[in-house]
Amino acid sequence: MTLTPGTRTLTQDDGELLLLTRVEGPMARMGHELALRIDRWSASLTIGQEPTETALQVTADLRSLAIKGSRIPGKLVPVKDALEIFTSSQKSLQVQKYPEVTFASTKAEGTWDALALEGNLTLHGRTQPQILRITAAESQYRLITQITQSAFGIKPFSFMMGALKVGDTVDLEVTVRL
Q: The pTM is what?
């Protein structure tokens, strides 16, 4: 896919930013693997002449976190469960104290169809190195990475003395149209 060099501003109007959870523990079958959507985010994408000249800066507002539904297509999340999950996710992430998550790339490697962006992710008041992988498909781009909550000082939600808990690793998936 050929891109025109320059800087673009992207927002939630250009695509979707999802956090995809997993459940663990002996009672995992009772839990919900969720797709959580961040409704307010913006990005500055600089496209150079070569893929290695690409730069990305993203800011997302965790206070706009919403439950999209189950990560598993066709599986429903009851409204009562969704409300409890929403409240517990807000507490675990401490969104009032740490409302923003940011990413700033420092290096790009690859091709226009498969690009890896290395950079710094700041979440929950901590900054860690992170690699985002971007792939092209038809008229859109898909960005994926995995975030380990404990690396950022976040204690994943658990219930029934750990018999049911959210997995420490959460998938981040962004799909945008350019």
A: 0.88
